[in-house]
Design brief:
Length: about 110
């Protein structure tokens, strides 16, 4: 069905990535973001790669009770562009993040 393509948006979770992999990505130089426990409606307009220093998150498909991913402290997570979802944060999150600037020329905000 047209318009249902959002169901192919897969969240990739790398459990316990190696220190060398993390330093290769330059994670410590990425900006940080945190949130307290609660539910958050999020939409990703660009692919985001993030590394959780702490926290525990369940991700639900938008307007659904279907859990599409779970991750927490020590996980490297890749969230696809175009994903709309609800984050159910049970343990406060502290993470490093980076957006892939696929369309860096057209940064109209």
């Amino acid at each position: 069905m047209a318009g249902e393509s959002s169901s192919d948006l897969t969240i990739i979770v790398h459990k316990n990535p190696s220190e060398s992999h993390l330093s290769e990505l330059g994670i410590k130089s990425w900006p940080k973001w945190g949130c307290s426990p609660g539910k958050y409606q999020l939409k990703f307009d660009a692919q985001e790669t993030c590394y959780l220093l702490r926290g525990k998150v369940k991700v639900y498909r938008k307007n659904s009770s279907e859990v599409i991913s779970e991750f927490g402290a020590g996980d490297l997570v890749i969230l696809p562009e175009g994903l709309s979802c609800t984050w159910d944060v049970s343990v406060a999150v502290d993470k490093h993040y980076k957006f892939e600037s696929t369309t860096s020329s057209s940064s109209s905000s």
